[in-house]
């Protein structure tokens, strides 16, 4: 029974990954662009190549990367390789493998995104729940509207504004980079503080850019729940506000929000593309951005798949967490 | 002993008045409602839908929410005026002095936490600092007293049937042995067999803790089976309060009379006698007595003057011009 | 003449979930006949979950039986097409329990009445349609100008339910399924709605299947009664007979639990046995709650004909002759016994 | 599959010694190359930019502003045949690899033969075209035999300048490497340059000075004062953080960084007077690159096969506006397909060229003349004011590259739209593909050919590169132009050295055809505007400080010369 | 009972009721007010400016806001006032096209899926579920990055955004129709002889209008957001003065560093106003569609 469920979920996971991989495989190939050629154009523009018949080198490399095979063949190989967890080499950063590109980029992104996503999730949900709660002080409830406005400020704009006012005008915080130049992070306290200092602005941009959404959705849900009979009955029972808030509001709203959290991690990577670019942080967003701009197919596939798989896995994992959050699901 | 208790009412409601301020205008949902209740007594509260029964219950709990407002009145429970309490004291008073068993027991339990926890949090919120084991024992006793298996303590609401949930709500209601229990249509969602079980349960636990019970509903049959006295509401006013027997044999108010004669019973098969006309909207109440457009005994005075509530012999209350002279 | 309605061993089983199918038997082997020439009011009673609504949905053709057939005027209703289907739609109508839910909140209440007039072409022009609507509303004691043009939430529950009845009146169906038509209406209004229903049968020859868990109203309106428990027929017969002298332990429990609005008929003093969860699908469904359960009850008891107008499915009556399920209807009286 | 050779990070085995900021040089750059790749043959991952040029050395450098060769691993390199078919290389006897082994002719032969045989290496095509054989005469002497006269081979291939030329690689480092293209190299790779890679992660790349650098001992150069070079990763997309890079330079976080937009560099200087540029604190703040940009087009497809249309496009472009609006008055707009380095400046200043220019007016902006030509070519304006023939507008989508063209291309498009050409911008990832395929439209791209004389640039339009439609054109040969008369002129130039009068005569002829036929539309000279922060380091290469004569870009092949010449402030 | 009131308050005959309602529903009021302001800005703008000035080389360059150029000009010589007007209009076009098509697809699939059920439902639902964890914007970036920029017009941009933007609406509509389908008035309509189409369009659809309106606003929000995002990355139609494009080109020229703050800030503010008002309207509509939320106000 439970095995069957796990089997079905894993199957689902595979289908999701297959769909995502097919989409990312097909779309960039719709234009006839030869990734290798674009790469060599880049190289020859920055020099290092004799302008003489580049085409020969291009043909040679196209062969090595299997780009000269018929599309169908490429697709098969591609799927086969994915099954082996082998995304191949980056075209752009050969002989680095796609896995290495991701592994290099992920710590920075993960550190930034995980922290900001979780923080904005917590802050947003807390404020959202509060703003929906009739017993909350008026000023807390009034905060909902500014937060809705915040949902209208995409992280990139938030980043640009923060950079302009705090970075340029006030010169309060570092303008970019993950740490002070020349420091080799050695795990010491000071190197962490240095890192933290550099991450304040990008984190703020990400948090402020996404917290509004949480406030909104949590508020909507909180208000819905507030009309539920069991909340009324809780008041009739003479429970303290704290208990009602915690056990009757939060417990019941957290469930759908948890799924949304898993999904949000996927969308936040998109914000990372712009934020990492803006603040010169070498993470997965940057890796993806430059891969897209240089037709580095394997890296594009690798990253999109990685993120999709991560989100899908989280979602599936959530389904196994649900029963812990909501006993009603346990029986099904 | 019973007699001694009967002498001093455990619950006194006086001049309660509630208004809802809606978009469409003001609706006076409770107008000058007063009655008393003795310990161990069961009062039925009947009336058409929208006549203000639930509003009365909520007002007694001080749980009227905006756009509603309690405009005036007092509710004395065992000598304390609930209306005069601070918010915190009122919170404490709920469940410990006056308990409310909700209308929709189906949805009144938090679906994500165990039944046990929902009993425990009620105790803890009332400053009970006993050990875990003691508290658990107390809860299990409460469950047992409503005929539930102690195993229910560890169950979730969705694992219970409607009748069981209703009984859990009753168990919560008696947890702190309140002096007054208000049950708002506790069985309208249940079938007759379960309904009977639940009513019997309420009766039994009431006897255990000697509380006064107010049963809200519109099923006269249920009232006949269960309560001692019946209060009839019409458009936010209490039009009659009598014992069941008196009400069935000698209804005073024309509305009550119509209500009684519209009841089906085994003797009068096939006779249907409704009350003509419609209940008025609270927003546009007729002048004078709200019932006069439907009243078979309407007099001129009824159209212009609001009748006052009078206490007749044997403690019956009635609000009707017919009895202006009697007093 | 063909029968108005024939149910041949109709069963309905709900399965939930595609993979781990969990089956609920909602209705079991019901056979029933209604004659065209004898319009009647038949009550189907039973507690919650006994399959009453399922029966209504089957009769209306909204769901199809798992086994068995429903024959309407000689035709299997699942096989109806085109004209015949339209005719069936028109001739078999319903009044539902919740007087609010049947109104589309987007429209004024006129919608409820004007749509069928339009669809079934009951009137040739708007004026005739309006006249028809007025007539039907007046017949249920409403003043058309009071209700027409209003939104459902602007009317009281009683008014809404009466409009429902007016709708049934307007269509003059041959068969009316009334699924708990008064359970959500104030006691004071019940009487007038029930009266309208009864007039429909008496004056317009409409057969009514009155579905309820409320034996009081059943007793007052119906001629015959079928008592269901977990989808199976427990007892059937003349309504007076069954309610005044119930033979099946389940019917007895039901009747005992009715909160009669009478001072001389009180509930018994002994507490009744709580319903237990789960029961095996074989044997008498009431077995687990039955105070008189016997070893025998592990097999499904047949219907025993106790007297001319009463039968019960219980081994307590094993001395009486068995009666085949499809002949059950023969026991049910048809003519209304007017005004005692 | 072979084992992955690259790494995800290189961490120093022991913590790096603390150095004062004054001994460290911080350079801002976008590092996109694969971590751990130091092997010049790990193509296409390897790039000499991003610091690798500090590890590798060529036979000779060419100091472009000094206009002379700078012998390095080779002490001499001479053509030994009059017709430029043989070349002898003598190595510096003191040259050593970082592992202490001597640099010998074996390494040179290995390097050359590698390029010749391995068609994945960047100079394979050049070697295959010219080189017949490479032999080691002794440990320090290498003889190269050419198949055909190769007068420019020494300069183009064997010398490092700008971003071209090849480094010599150690033969022994490749022993046992199955696939030399997949070998990353890492820190283990022996190299001849003075800086060792010591740390590399996503944020930065750190090099330490190896004080036993052979060139110091050989007396080529004093010991560099820069003890450590930190290349700080600015992130991939420059456009996104141009503001911050400029500000960080002003804040002296970095000593130098990648080149700046013309709109930005002036402000950098204004905000920090310690910062200087190639031209000091005066416009145009930069030095000339070898990569003048033209609007190229496929001269084989309609309507660009019509010289009138090509000329009309040129006439629609207002080069004064380009200079004034985009480049703060610097004279950037050009009419030549080559950069005006000393040798080429001499060429264009010759009376013949001046006369030709006066006659043809190649830089003229004249919308009326443009319109006249278009009408002659059979076009008429449609309702939207765009030229149209047979229902087709002139597709003037300009294919270009966002990172470098985002200032100029939008302006060009407006010129074209204003003159009735259907202009648009394509900074897509297929821009280069379109150029290579010869898709309709205009291609903004450089020439990257001539440095000393116009031959290399003029050869780009030779008919032998005129691939037929459907096959990709070679890099920088997007014109696909075919004209026997033109080919004859260029062929005549090929075997001649640049100072040959015949060469000059033919070059002028070729330029006449280039302009009249408008083979492409020259737009701008390419400038590198690099900020040099003198807070910590001085003696940056500038127009007046030609000591090393290089172009001053630390990321170019000559970057080692820039870094090693720096003096503490 | 309450959803009846809300539907009615949408009716023109209930204009004053609607006004009164809006006064209570502050987010809707503010959102609509800002939206009206933006529309007025664009419309009046189109009447007063020359759209040609939204393109480079049409004005003096790098002018700070002044009487002549109220919003200043940029490095390329665009009059930013004209650019704002045209950009706002183009943003609206993308939002409306993408939002409209997306909503139509979503509503259609949602209805088909829920109303007919069975295999169709299973397929549509599964597709939605499968596509949900795929980060849509990421795919859109890949798509936009892979296209020939010549082909990226405003319309194409909208289509890219529609491509993966319909699942949310589908699922919302589907679940709404599923509950709606079980409502008794549908059964009554069937009894009244109404056919499938009649039930879908005459009985169910009108009741879903608030949901569809909310879904539409969400779709427009997402479309505007996505188009802005792609444009900021330089993946949109590059010549057009899309708000994102303006920021993109400002960043490319170091506008902040050079002190041309108005260049990126103006489109940023415009975008915030657009997205913010959409979010507020969405929240307001949410209150309309969800009676419980409304009750609390
Ligand atoms: N939150 C509210 N806002 C506005 N009016 C309200 C509100 N709650 C109740 N009312 C009005 O107050 C009156 C009394 O309502 P109440 O719920 O007390 O009636 P009731 O007798 O309990 O009816 P029922 O039998 O249907 O439960 C009704 O007319 C109702 O419309
Ligand atoms: N759509 C359905 N899917 C699965 N099971 C169903 C469905 N509808 C009804 N059932 C089950 O069938 C049984 C009979 O249900 P039905 O609704 O007919 O009962 P009922 O007698 O009308 O009850 P009530 O008095 O509560 O309306 C119940 O056990 C119910 O849970
Ligand atoms: Mg009530
Ligand atoms: Mg039912």
Describe the structure.
The complex is a heteropentamer of chains A (332), B (327), C (340), D (569) and E (297). Helix content of chain A is 77%, strand content 0%. Chain A is built from 14 helices and no strands. In chain A, helix 2 (35-45) packs across helix 3 (54-64). The longest helix of chain A is centred in the last third of the chain and has 39 residues, at 241-279. Chain A is globular. The mean pLDDT of chain A is 81. Chain B is α/β, with parallel strands linked by helices. Chain B has a single domain (4-323), classed as 3-Layer(aba) Sandwich (Rossmann fold). In chain B, 32% of the residues lie in helices and 23% in strands. Chain B contains eleven helices and twelve strands. Chain B has helices at residues 2-7, 53-60, 87-96, 115-125, 132-145, 162-174, 192-209, 220-226, 244-249, 254-261, 300-304, and strands spanning 11-22, 25-37, 42-47, 68-77, 80-81, 98-101, 180-184, 212-216, 229-234, 237-243, 309-311, 317-319. In chain B, the strands form two sheets. In chain B, strands 6-7-8-3-9-10-12-11 form an eight-stranded mixed β-sheet, sandwiched between helices. A four-stranded antiparallel β-sheet of chain B has the order 2-1-4-5, covered by helices on one side. In chain B, helix 5 (132-145) packs across helix 6 (162-174) and helix 6 (162-174) runs parallel beside helix 7 (192-209). The two termini of chain B are 32 Å apart. With 340 residues, chain C is an alpha/beta fold. Chain C is 30% helix and 21% strand. Chain C has helices at residues 52-59, 82-91, 110-119, 126-139, 144-147, 157-171, 187-204, 215-221, 239-244, 249-257, and strands at 5-16, 22-34, 41-45, 67-72, 75-76, 92-95, 175-179, 207-212, 224-229, 232-238, 304-307, 310-312. In chain C, the strands form two sheets. An eight-stranded mixed β-sheet of chain C has the order 6-7-8-3-9-10-12-11, with helices on both faces. In chain D, the strands form eight sheets. Chain D has a five-stranded mixed β-sheet, with no helix packed on it. The radius of gyration of chain D is 24 Å and the shape is globular. Chain D is α+β, with helices and mostly antiparallel strands. Chains in contact: A-B, A-D, A-E, B-C, C-E, D-E. Chains B and C meet through helix 7, helix 8 and helix 9 of B and helix 6, helix 7, helix 8, helix 9 and helix 10 of C. Bound molecules: adenosine-5'-triphosphate (2 copies) and magnesium ion (2 copies). Residues 53-54, 103 of chain B line the site of one magnesium ion. One magnesium ion (MG) binds next to helix 2 of chain B.
